[in-house]
Specification:
Distance between the termini: 10 Å
Order of helices and strands: HHHHHHHEEHHHHHEEHHHHEEHHH
Structural class: mainly alpha
Shape: globular
Number of helices: 19
Largest sheet: 2 strands, antiparallel
Helix content: over 70%
Length: 484
């Protein structure tokens, strides 16, 4: 590659990468909102409980309400996008995000707060499907893998930014989640600020092109040629690329739920592996950290300002771990990275369970001894790091690679649906579990982290270096890929 000209050594022009990066980053704003909306509730849990005077069970249902919308949004986004286009889908998601943010900030009662959370969840579900699909369809083949990683990076950045914004708002409110700023309580501002990135996402959707694949499916071939020239370079054989896409679309067969059946226990074995990956990813309790960490630290005697700061630092650790995973997932493989993560998570969760067993006091007078408090903080950060550098990224890589082509779409849909259900289960169960026995809750998460180790060793396939086409034949030797 000639650095100054941006051309390969052969002298052929490359795709206009700067423009493609902008398009990809704009589409990944959906991932940012995904992370932001998923995590922003973390800073409002205690205030919502006090404002509406609800118990842990009702509170958990409100927190988890967004996950109902997520499942619905993810299930319908593909069909909507095929009918009206990827860009229109992004715009619908942006509007729903915006309305949800305003409604959540100004609820009349607990029931309508839950309703706005469901609406925001629907937008999350749409963004979680449309973003990666659009990015894959506009990315030049040579850069697709790296550009696809923008979505996951945007999610973890959204989580971190939401924690930082929450902390800043809390500081302005004098450290009180129900402190008043300009007539609204701090927790209302936390939920309402999401209007800003939601509007930005909507505005960006008006300046990026529609997917060439959708344009061709809609018979708008000339527009598709223009977009292909924008993202792949004018030197590309545009007629050939259009023909290639048309041929691929004609030869595709959409997989159905029936294709997944035929195994000894209903589903094919590889589908059960995908379901297992989704279940373990959630049942180690990662979303307890992102949904409840502020209230968790306050429940063991840490003041609100410090608890919000600790929540933000775990989000930074999450970003660091994600970058580590992106660097090493193609170097050392999926299984070794997942095993490292499982061992690290088991150890850190076990330490957290031990530390929380020393919790003393009741009501607003709860505390941990200094030593156990320090261990709990370190263990929580270590848990997030090990999750982020392994299961946070590896599961999605494996789910995208390990299924045979004939069942890939349907199998991914089942695995993703199970993941939302497992996420919901963890989210609704934590408040009553922690009220019963906080240490016991972490023992449960530790057990799942330990069980994930034999699961990886026995059933999870290694997909590093294998072409997607090879997944139809499990015995196919691994092809060593050559890095550019």
């Amino acid at each position: 590659m000639n650095i100054r000209t941006g051309r390969p050594a052969s002298g052929l022009p490359t795709a206009p990468l700067g423009h493609v990066v902008f398009i990809t980053a704009a589409a990944a704003m959906g991932g940012f909102l995904f992370g932001y909306d998923s995590s922003v509730i973390n800073g409002t849990v205690v205030a919502i409980r006090d404002r509406f005077d609800v118990g842990p069970e009702a509170l958990a249902q409100v927190i988890a309400a967004a996950l109902i919308g997520c499942a619905l949004g993810a299930a319908t986004a593909g069909r909507i996008a095929d009918r009206i286009g990827r860009i229109r889908c992004m715009q619908i998601a942006a509007v729903l995000f915006t309305v949800s943010a305003v409604g959540s900030a100004l609820p009349f009662a607990l029931w309508d707060l839950a309703l706005w959370r469901v609406m925001g969840g629907f937008a999350i579900g749409m963004a979680s499907v449309i973003g990666p699909a659009y990015i894959a369809e506009v990315s030049p083949p040579a850069y697709r893998g790296r550009l696809a990683s923008f979505q996951q990076a945007a999610i973890v950045i959204g989580i971190a930014v939401s924690q930082l914004v929450n902390w800043l708002i809390l500081t302005l409110a004098g450290g009180e989640q129900r402190g008043v700023i300009a007539g609204l309580e701090a927790w209302q501002w936390m939920l309402g600020v999401m209007v800003v990135p939601a509007v930005l996402y909507g505005l960006l959707s008006f300046v990026i092109p529609e997917s060439p694949r959708f344009l061709i499916s809609a018979g708008r071939t000339e527009q598709a040629r223009k977009v292909l020239a924008e993202v792949e370079g004018s030197h590309v054989d545009l007629d050939g690329r259009v023909t290639e896409i048309e041929h691929a679309m004609r030869s595709e067969r959409k997989s159905t739920f029936r294709d997944l059946l035929g195994g000894r226990f209903g589903f094919l074995p590889i589908v059960w592996v995908g379901i297992g990956l989704s279940v373990f990813q959630q049942l180690v309790g990662i979303n307890v950290i992102f949904y409840y960490s502020s209230s968790l630290w306050q429940s063991v005697g840490i003041d609100p300002s410090s608890s919000f700061l600790f929540s933000f630092t775990t989000s930074i650790i999450n970003i660091v771990g994600t970058v580590i995973a992106m660097i090493f997932v193609d170097r050392i493989g999926r299984k070794p990275l997942a095993l490292i993560g499982s061992v690290g998570m088991a150890l850190s969760l076990g330490l957290a369970a031990w530390a929380f067993s020393y919790k003393t006091g009741t009501g607003d007078h709860i505390s941990l001894p200094d030593t156990q408090g320090t261990v709990a903080l370190i263990a929580a950060h270590a848990f997030v790091l090990f999750f982020a550098l392994s299961w946070g990224v590896v599961v999605w890589v494996l789910l995208g690679e390990m299924f045979p082509g004939r069942i890939r779409t349907a199998a991914l849909g089942v695995a993703a649906a199970v993941q939302w259900v497992a996420n919901w289960l963890i989210t609704v169960s934590f408040p009553p579990l922690s009220a019963w026995n906080l240490s016991g809750a972490y023992v449960i998460y530790t057990v799942f982290a330990v069980l994930s180790i034999p699961f990886i060793l026995k059933w999870v396939p290694e997909t590093k270096g294998r072409a997607l086409e090879d997944m139809d034949s499990p015995g196919t030797p691994i092809r060593e890929s050559v890095s550019p």
